[in-house]
Records
---
Amino acid sequence: MSPSLRTSYRACREITRCHARSFYLASHTLPEAKRREAWAVYAFCRIADDAIDLAPDEAARLAALEEQKALLARLFSMGDTATGDLPPWGLAFRDTCARRRIAPGFFEGLLKGISHDCGTVRIGNWAELDLYCYHVASVCGLVMTHIFSPQPSAELLEHAAALGTAMQLTNILRDVGEDLDRDRIYLPAYDLAKFGLSEVDLRAFRPEGKIDPRFRDLMRFQIARAREWYLLADPGIAQLPADGTRRAVWTMRLLYAAILDEIERNDFDVFTRRARVGGWRKASLLLEA
């Protein structure tokens, strides 16, 4: 490995360490090559998401989206020996995609999903939310599976996509209040109406977290849905190589699913309290994994 490529992989490691503590922790059970490649893929996903999500206004978000599309095209069109004007993580990302034969279409799908976060977000029904989860999370699971398992089967990829959906649903349920402040509501309007709720009700809950039985019932329904997706993913995790890869993915699965437990422990207040898995609980889940 050239010095410049080694430096690029180190940059990916730092991005992962700073922005994805649970993933960074879990990744240390992976073999060295898989670990650095997982960091490289995460680096692109994190940087792209932040560039769009943290833009100050709609025009800036759209501009950031186009910039990420152009950067992705450049990363995949450059020759093997070209370096060009790449971000610090760029060489490692290119090297990983080349080694694992990861097609650009996965990342184009990711950018398509992130584009739905531009401006106001409203989700009509489960079909819309399912598609959103696929683009922003399941696609990442599919890419990681190409790193974790050589020549993954269609069945294994299906399980990986399910895990991505489960983890994204967990994110959505944890961040209801924060997303509301950004004028983003990922809870489907159909589900809200089913439990007698509206956007007005959500905004009334936000200031002090004084929720009512309707919202608790809605959250129980959504948490049950997320847990069903974790169960759909589990057979795939069991098929992963026993070189530390299986343990790493089990760790992530358990840590994320535990967020749902914390939401329940907080009496479903996702408006004034952020569900977090404490250190002792993390330690016990690591042992379980």
---
Amino acid sequence: MPFGSLWLPVVASAVAVWLVSSILHMVLKYHKADYKRLGNPTTEAAVAQAIRAAGPTPGVYPIPYCEPSQMKDPENLKKYEEGPVGMITILANGAPNMGKYLGLWLGFCFLVSLTAGYVARHTLTVSSDPLEILRITGALAFVAYGYGNIQDAIWRGMPWSNAMRGLVDALIYSVVTGMVFRLLWPAG
């Protein structure tokens, strides 16, 4: 089967996931619990001022910071015990550019659908069972949309409740992806 015959399900599934994700985040609002205020407004302002004074460029900053070889140093162990322990992500200054983020998200959705189409093209035929089409493309989409949440919970300290909400999203996106591929799969 030529890969060109899968462009319609690739593009349609990417757009469908993008639209469904917009609805999930704007209507259901269950991701409001993903972010918390740092103390009260005065505390937040003081922390912001301290970070501003340090002048960090965009990046991820562990606190306390130490080289791996220094992890067992008593002074560093004391810093870890006293806390706080965390990862601070610094973005570029300025209001969030939602157009940019939504465009990048659409690009990621396209990449996931393109990869699902690539794998499906090499594992399925034009006469494949529709349920098998949904399983293959949906499973790959679930891995792509969901497993990064688990990695962030393990290594970046994302709360497991946030990761679980991300996995629920991934499950919904994978069903959408699989259904679109199933419905638009090229006929034999």
---
Amino acid sequence: MNSRPLKSDTKRTYYPVFLDISGKECLVVGAGSVALRKIAALLQAQARVIVVSPDVSADLLQLVDEKKVTLYRRSYENDDTQGAALVFACTNDHGVNDMVRQDAVKRGIPVNVIDNPAACDFIVPSTVRKGDITIAMSTSGDLPLLSRKLREKIEEVVTDDYVDYLRIIGSFRKELIRTVTEEKKRRDIMKKIDAMEISDVLSKGLSGIRNAFGLESL
């Protein structure tokens, strides 16, 4: 199977998606600072991280010692992409990165190539994570520093109150789905919840919300 050509410089519109990669093998080729950031994000998503690099840092070796990643301390080989769900080419050698990309493309595996959006099947957004809230943003690869500025602003706005609100109403909604069979009644209750101030929800807590909507008696 022939590898597809690099995408042209025409403007691309990306499709935003959250992937479940927990337990899935993700390959990172390279072990520099960018690779370590990719590894950290993959571990946070509970992926099985495979790293291929002849040169490694103390930080990476610590992750290996903690059995958080599997390291092959050697140069990249063509079969390394086999079985991966995602591939990241993070070396400072453009030739190696292109080889990684071509091998991933041949196997139909999405690949991200460092500092080369045109060679990427996907780009990694800037993210804000607070509890179970994840907000991702991107400038389509044009200006990553703006994504960072936006992330910092959003981090100020999304306080722990939103995390607590999600915990309370998320739990309530699961109970509502389990105990109230009538869809219209569930929808009406959730509309009333939506109209409540966050501070009111937090002051009532989960038990107070249950009582307010009669869930305790169901």
